[in-house]
Specification:
Ribosomal Protein S8, Chain: A, domain 1, endonuclease, Smr_dom, DNA endonuclease SmrA, about 15% strand, Endonuc_SmrA, six-stranded mixed β-sheet, DNA endonuclease activity
Length: about 190
């Protein structure tokens, strides 16, 4: 770039402002097919409980497994053996914003047939810290989704006690595809 090009570039960019860092969702797996975004009036209501959140002590690790989930699945999830499909960063966000973001993230993950998620909530130094309030809310809210099979504390390289691995059930379409794929092999 010569001097004239440099001046021209600076002149063209003088009124440009940097974008705010607002991308809190990181899709690690691209969806197989494009899905249309639902129109505002088609978006389902957020059914996650609002209001008082009972704080879970920091000393108590978060873990949940739906009825019928094998312990081996939970162990593999806890050890980070499943490849992550997407992550949601909720650091330093208000509780209501976290509730909305989590709801929308889970809907999008279901539509994209994602199975393994990482939710980064942060952690505090004491039980009443903001990070722990968010952590407690997420533990409560995730159990309200029928698609959530299990969740547990992440490995240190993914955030440790400041993050959760979430395992979702297969969609009906994924089950059919899996049956077809394995049926072809057995012939």
């Amino acid at each position: 770039m010569n001097l004239d090009d440099n001046d021209l570039f600076k002149h063209a960019m003088e009124d440009v402002t940097p974008l705010k860092e607002c991308a809190t969702v990181h899709w690690l797996k691209t969806p197989g097919m494009k899905t249309q975004r639902p129109r505002y009036d088609e978006t389902p209501d957020n059914f996650l409980v609002e209001g008082f959140i009972e704080v879970i002590p920091l000393s108590q690790p978060l873990e949940f497994a739906a009825e019928g989930i094998q312990q081996g699945v939970v162990d593999k999830l806890r050890l980070g053996k499943y490849q992550l499909d997407a992550s949601l960063n909720l650091l330093r966000q208000p509780v209501e914003s976290c509730r909305q973001s989590l709801f929308n993230f889970m809907l999008e993950a279901r539509k994209a047939n994602l199975r393994n998620l990482l939710i980064i909530h942060g952690k505090g130094r004491d039980d009443r810290a903001h990070g722990n309030v968010i952590r407690s809310g997420i533990a409560r809210w995730l159990q309200q989704f029928d698609d959530v099979q299990a969740f547990c504390v992440a490995q240190p390289q993914h955030g440790g006690s400041g993050a959760l691995y979430v395992g979702l059930r297969k969609t009906e379409q994924a089950r059919r595809d899996n049956r077809e794929r394995h049926a072809k092999r057995s012939r």
